[in-house]
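Q: what sequence does this backbone want?
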């Protein structure tokens, strides 16, 4: 699988997906007008990756903000992560949030609980 890289805009995050290294990174803000359309190639890539993941997969979320339509799209993404976990593959999920942003921390905790996935929460202050 080829890596998928999407550059950040004012409305969408930087996304880096690399199957060979087993890494997925989401950085910035996610508030595209049509989240389903924006994330379609990302979800397609992740579904393909979930069929044959690396022994270890690392997912890094460093999102300052994401809107409700992004949350709906992330459902498919987290279902793929569950599929990876069910294959007894190592799965590392880092959820970065600003130390003053309790809402973003809470969202990460809710997702971890809802999907039963192993999140590591990392607060930053810069």
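A:
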């Amino acid at each position: 699988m080829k890596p998928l890289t999407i550059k950040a805009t004012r409305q969408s995050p930087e996304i880096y997906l690399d199957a060979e290294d087993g890494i997925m990174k989401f950085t910035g803000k996610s508030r595209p007008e049509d989240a389903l359309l924006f994330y379609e190639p990302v979800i397609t890539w992740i579904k393909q990756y979930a069929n044959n993941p690396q022994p270890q997969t690392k997912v890094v979320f460093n999102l300052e903000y994401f809107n409700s339509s992004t949350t709906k799209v992330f459902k498919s993404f987290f279902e793929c992560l569950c599929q990876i976990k069910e294959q007894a593959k190592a799965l590392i999920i880092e959820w970065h949030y600003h130390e003053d942003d309790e809402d973003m921390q809470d969202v990460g905790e809710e997702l971890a609980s809802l999907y039963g996935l192993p999140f590591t929460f990392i607060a930053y202050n810069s």
